[in-house]
Amino acid sequence: VLTASLVLLVALPAAGAAAAGLVGGRVARRTAAGVAGAVAMLSFFCVFAAGPEAHQQSLADLPWLRGTLDRPVFGVLLDPLSAILLLVALPIGFLTVLYSTAYLSESNRDHPVAERESGRYYFWLLLFLASMAGVALSPNLLQLFLFWELTTVCSWALISFHRSEKSLRAAYKALLMTQCGGVAFLLGLLVVYVHAGSFEFAALARLGEPARSSAFLLLMLAAWTKAAQVPFHTWLPDAMEAPTPVSAYLHAAAMVKAGVYLMVRTAHAGSVPPALASSLLAAALVTLLVALASYFLQDDLKRLLAYSTIAHLAYVLLGAALGALGSALAYKAALLHIACHAFSKATLFLCAGAIAYVTGSRSISALGGLGRSMPLTATAFFVGVLAVSGIPPFACFWSKFMLLAGAVQLPGTTGPLLVALLLLESLVSFGWLLHVGQKVFFGAPTPVACVNSDPPWPMSATLVVLMLGCLLVPLVALPLVDSIGATP
Amino acid sequence: MTTALLLGASLLLLLMGALVSLLLARERRKSGWSSVAFVGGAATLLWLVSVKTFRAGAEPELTLVRVPALGAGLTVSVDCLSALFLAITASIALLTTLFSVEYMTRYPRDSVARYYPALQLLFVGIVGVVASADFLAFLVFWELMTLASFVLVAFEGDSSSSQRAALKYFVVNQAATLGMAAAGLILWKQSGSFHFSALHDAMGSLLTSQSALAHVVLFLFFIGFATKAGILPMGDWLPDAYPAAPSGATAAFGGAMTKLGVYGLLRVFLSILPLGPATETWGLVLLLAGTASLFVGTLMALQQDDSKRLMSFHVIGQVGYMFLGVGLGLFFLRSHPALAALGLMAGVFHLLNHSLYKACLFLGAGAVHYRTGTRSLNALGGLAPFMPLTALCATTAALAIAGVPPLNGFASKWLLYVTAIQGAQRFPLFAIVAIVAMFVSLLTLASFLKYLGGAFLGLPSTRVGLREVPASMLIPQAMLGLACVALGLMPGWPLRLVHRALIGAIPEAGLPRFGALLGTGAALQVSAGSAGVAAWGPLACVGGLAVLVVLSILIQRAGGAEVRDVSAWNCGEEHPTELVRYPAGSFYGPLKHAFRGIYPALTLEPPHFPRWLRRAFDVDTWLYLPSAGLVVRGAAGLSRTHVGVPQVYLLWILLGAAVVMGILLGVAR
């Protein structure tokens, strides 16, 4: 039953995508919401049914590879690691779809969307869900690569959804840059295959020395481009041309999370040479600081949030690097941060979307005093800011605190120094986000902000669920993360 | 078990109260009264916990939730020190909520959905902080407290100064909290657990192995708690943030939340820091920081013309007294337990007193604000005939804070002076400290005379519609004022509780019994060796005064002197007007000029990046777009070779063949 359900997790949204694409219009909207809701429920069922045990099942093979491999190529794998990504990608996917049903309408003041466009939109969005489920459930590098490329294609189609000059350019840029990473992934994959005769994640640890370093370096490059790390980060802020629910999904739960997922999958103490782990750590730190500095230069609310995403992905990679250097706690923290950040960032993005929907503007300097007319959005935004900055009792506090605890375990002065840097980043980004929140929601209403109300109910309901998520995610994710042994 | 149960029930009541008041937020009064009901229930339970702990002693601690990955958990532990703070919090919580019901009707534009729930969450945070014996839980509740108070400070949504104050408040306190988190983590690295007892052991081993790091940890804790308490130089946020919140909330801040800084300090320096040379060093740091901020805070308070801002600076000053007491106690903890006990008791007793009179003062300022709509002392005056009871309570509290006998402020300050002067025999610096503290007490009186004079005295105000505030706003003030009098008349009774709380918190220090410190009678008697050094018997003094008053009345009656009714002399002015009034802004001019800006002010500004750095961040313009352009130009160049003429292609083939041949020949050779 479990295997069948897991296959359904990929197949159902794919089928839904086809159906929505074919029928279009209002029916597509309902189909998409129904399918996404069902898949989200199913993902919970699967995770609870599987428990802390890893569940792996091989399903199919490529005829021309038969005999050369230790295991068939295609299958499903559900362990706590994939459970985390699954519980992020599918429930948030459902919320995104639900939100989109109201957001994509003629009454959107930022980007009115005609009813006939919705078939195309839901086709790509559901396909995105399916490919993320595929990424999460992949038992080996090859299958992961296939779904990984599928997410790239989906994001290209969704970023360029409005088909304006700017959005086409942004989508092309995203495609090009992540594709470079895809090529690196493919090369890394081939190195592993040639030297170990296997696509398994564990095969990386069995490689001899030069091969292992080069394979891991290539995979690292792939993760950096996908997760928009410096210097490959420039596609992500531009990708804000996408409709906001897509941005939210892209940032919180999909696409970029696939990049960091690859790292937490492959970067273990046994498999990564310490020099590469250290460079992963250094790159994450540089990304953190560059993203932080870029906060102050943004006026577009969504671009600001994009840089915040870049910084938080750096946190995850930092945790993975620390894990590869031997800290099991930091590794768990990285995983936990994937989940916690997903809900916090989705909240923030969907708030930005609600603001744009109602006012038609995303400019921080043009907005002001919205709190009086949009109390729910204001609450959600502040909850998101607190959650993403790691203010207890909200989600990211727990992951950040665990990460700090992992960092402090580093020998010598590196640990305290790292902790000091991370705390500084937390403080400054928190201060700035809070300031932006106050600017947008308090004070005297600006001309743009003279509006009447919160967004329609599907959007408001999504925000309420996400706010609860910001508070409750650790309750679900912490036991899952804890069930991963010291050596994953 | 019962303690945990009662605490849990009270927290549940507060959370439910927060939810109910949120749901009722459209109707201000209903929301307020429901909050009063829930807070009242919770306060009763907290009082029960407090009384039970003082009577039966602390129950064994109970761990409710565990986070095994971090070696942390929600550990509930209430000893007498916690019980003392629980009692303070419960009382202040109930009184300030009751006061708020009517007060909050004067904010027509801001919804109370951002007030009552936040207020009750603030109390949840305070109770949680006080009852936790695990550092992680402590930190979570501590942040909850900061978060809730941020919402209260930012309550006036349209006021940009409120928003700025709130931002500064949160960011500065967050910085301090993150520092404490780092300190906790460094200790955690040693012990693998966040329990206070584990941190104690970790601190002990750290002090012997890496004493520099241990002092960094202590410094971070000190800064963390000093920030919350408003101690120099981290208290700059306080005079901005406190006045911005509605007065009920300000009273809760001043009466309960500020005190948590001192509570945290007591926990860290009494329970986590092992007794040793470091105790002495940090005792000295604490008392110097305390002295500096009581001096600077009070001098700044003298210069203020906004009633709540004036009182906020006095928070800084008064917390300075507490730090002074605690610092003296720590300094002598190893060498002279009797003096240590006196210093600690003076500090904690002052804390208790300050909760009462500062809450009363903030509520009084709120009452004035409620009727007049202003906090500027220059615009007020002559309110006493219209608001006699508010004026009476404010006067009582003002005299108490200034340390006028026989009120409670005098009793704790007296104990502080006695300790400092006695300590001066061992460490002469303390004599100067004592003199500064006494002098500042005078400044406090001066500044509150300005407040009383500016707000209540003078010619009757000409404002329309002035009358006494409703009973629900008067009762809290009256109860706090009465408590100030009661604690002042019978200081021995609360001091015995404070003594028990301290004995429980530091069992290894061997503090002397109460009788040996302050005598067994109603009066407080301090003795050194066998000789008495100082004594203070408020009841005897007040009794004597009362006898004198009765006597003078009797003499007046017996003499049959007649009472004349004359108007007050007004410097010969025949038609006194508002214009010739001596406004509050004109008080203490020399001090204003001499000490302007003595408190370092912090401004938060976004960074400005140089142009080259901005360009460096923009990777697209200097890396990707040029390389993409290069590819495009290269492709264009390459396509120029495709001319579509067969002869040219043949030429290319020939050339290519020649090159290949050349290479082959070269390789072959």
Q: Would you give an account of this structure?
A:
The complex is a heterodimer of chains A (488) and B (669). Chain A is mainly alpha-helical. Helix content of chain A is 72%, strand content 2%. The model of chain A has no long low-confidence stretch (mean pLDDT 89). Chain B has 669 residues and is mainly alpha-helical. Helix content of chain B is 71%, strand content 3%. Chain B has 24 helices and 4 strands. In chain B, the strands form 2 sheets. Chain B has a two-stranded antiparallel ribbon. Chain B has a two-stranded antiparallel sheet with strand order 3-4. In chain B, helix 3 (80-103) runs antiparallel to helix 17. The model of chain B has no long low-confidence stretch (mean pLDDT 90).
Give me the strand/helix succession of chain B: HHEEHHHHHHHHHHHHHHHHHEEHHHHH
Shape of chain B: globular
DSSP helix count of chain B? 24
Count all strands of chain A and give the number: 2
Number of H- or I-type helical stretches of chain A: 18
Largest sheet of chain A: 2 strands, antiparallel
What is the CA-based Rg of chain B, rounded? 32 Å
**Mean of the pLDDT scores of chain A?**
89
Shape of chain A: globular
Percent helix range of chain B: over 70%
Q: Please count the beta strands of chain B (DSSP E, at least 2 residues each).
A: 4
**What does the largest sheet of chain B look like?**
2 strands, antiparallel
Which structural category do the helix and sheet elements of chain B fall into?
Answer: mainly alpha
The helix content of chain A, as a percent range, equals: over 70%
Helix/strand/pairing category of chain A: mainly alpha
